[in-house]
């Protein structure tokens, strides 16, 4: 006999549990393309607001259909393939750069009972899959048979590998304190544990090391997603367009789809690791056991994630680009030692029971 999830509303009680899971998977699969198109529109509007410009406002209300117009342009634009490229790798590279961002999106816990996968090693799996995106960038740069594209690909691989170290070490602090690699369990720990019996124990506020880990993580996320001020792999002033300089049409669009999908994943991961995920001062327990609780938790999660996406856009249109030697120096000589020291302090506090999963 089929057992129904306790949170499934009466109006959907006729659906088998497996069918409801399929619906959740379908919804999650539809989110990235829609969100990327809205994020491109938001970037144009926010950048226009920062620079005191108007921004897109002609195609659809408030320019909302501008991204649709761009998609139509990419679909019908001629797909120009240079004569000296490695055609197989040249064609595969955009997909390799895009797919990891879409797959890792399905690992994020949007609400206590709205997630595609609830893996015990969810954080480890997310990092493992997201790290594969560098292969698409590197292969695209090499297969293009262009010096500009090759240099951009080499820069991207060095940059992403360097900052993945600090990204992982910053996340390890959260793992130590929550005692789990399960992303949903991390959120539950942050929502159920209390500081002074009142405030939720979001890891950004738990102890100074949590704040340090957050600063390191968000900075590394900019480098990991090739966003300004760390967009050296596609620095137009030096490399024309970097690793995708020889791409056009939908292949060109796939690289940017992967970049924006990675932005969404990183923003959602920061929400989950450091800001309590779907929890917000007890509001996540309103109407407990109903579909409305899931909707409230999902709304809280997305509100926090959208804030980080705004920060991504805000920083891009505020700070100038770093030099490449400055980027490498920051990662290896500042963030890596600081991350290791912060992790050691967190491990010491956890060992002596000063704070952590047993609190």
Summary?
With 359 residues, the chain is an all-alpha fold.
Please tell me about this protein's structure.
It is a single chain. This protein is an all-alpha fold. It has two domains: 15-69; 80-351, no CATH class. The protein has 13 helices and two strands. The protein has helices at 17-50, 66-76, 87-105, 122-130, 133-143, 147-178, 183-192, 203-206, 208-224, 236-239, 249-274, 291-316, 324-351; strands spanning 194-195, 199-200. A two-stranded antiparallel sheet has the order 1-2. Strand 1 (194-195) and strand 2 (199-200) form a beta hairpin. Helix 3 (87-105) runs parallel beside helix 11 (249-274) and helix 5 runs antiparallel to helix 6 (147-178). The chain is globular, with a radius of gyration of 21 Å. The two termini are 40 Å apart. Residues 1-11 have low confidence and may be disordered.
């Amino acid at each position: 006999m089929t057992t129904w999830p306790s949170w499934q509303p009466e109006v959907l009680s006729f659906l088998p549990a497996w069918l409801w899971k399929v619906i959740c998977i379908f919804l999650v699969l539809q989110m990235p393309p829609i969100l990327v198109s809205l994020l491109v529109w938001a970037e144009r509007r926010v950048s226009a607001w920062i620079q005191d410009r108007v921004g897109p406002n002609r195609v659809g209300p408030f320019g909302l259909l501008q991204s649709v117009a761009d998609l139509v342009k990419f679909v019908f634009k001629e797909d120009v393939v240079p004569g000296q490229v490695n055609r197989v790798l040249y064609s595969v590279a955009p997909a390799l750069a895009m797919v990891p961002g879409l797959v890792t999106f399905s690992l994020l816990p949007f609400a206590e009972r709205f997630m595609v996968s609830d893996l015990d090693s969810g954080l480890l799996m997310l990092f493992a899959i997201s790290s594969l995106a560098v292969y698409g960038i590197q292969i695209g740069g090499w297969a293009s048979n262009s010096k500009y594209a090759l240099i951009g690909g080499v820069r991207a691989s060095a940059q992403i590998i360097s900052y993945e170290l600090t990204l992982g070490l910053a996340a390890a602090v959260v793992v130590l304190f929550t005692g789990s690699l399960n992303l949903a369990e991390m959120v539950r720990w942050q929502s159920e544990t209390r500081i002074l019996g009142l405030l939720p124990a979001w890891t950004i506020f738990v102890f100074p090391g949590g704040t340090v880990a957050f600063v390191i993580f968000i900075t590394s996320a900019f480098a990991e997603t090739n966003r300004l001020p760390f967009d050296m792999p596609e620095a137009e002033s030096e490399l024309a367009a970097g690793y995708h300089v020889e791409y056009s049409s939908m292949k060109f669009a796939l690289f940017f789809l992967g970049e924006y999908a990675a932005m969404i994943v990183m923003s959602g991961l920061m929400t989950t690791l450091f800001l309590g995920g779907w929890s917000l001062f007890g509001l996540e327990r309103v109407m407990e056991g109903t579909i409305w609780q899931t909707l409230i938790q999902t709304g809280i999660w997305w509100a926090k994630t959208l804030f980080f996406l705004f920060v991504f856009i805000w920083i891009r249109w505020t700070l100038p680009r770093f030099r490449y030697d400055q980027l490498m120096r920051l990662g290896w000589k500042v963030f890596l030692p600081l991350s290791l020291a912060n992790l050691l302090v967190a491990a010491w506090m956890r060992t002596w029971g000063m704070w952590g999963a047993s609190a």
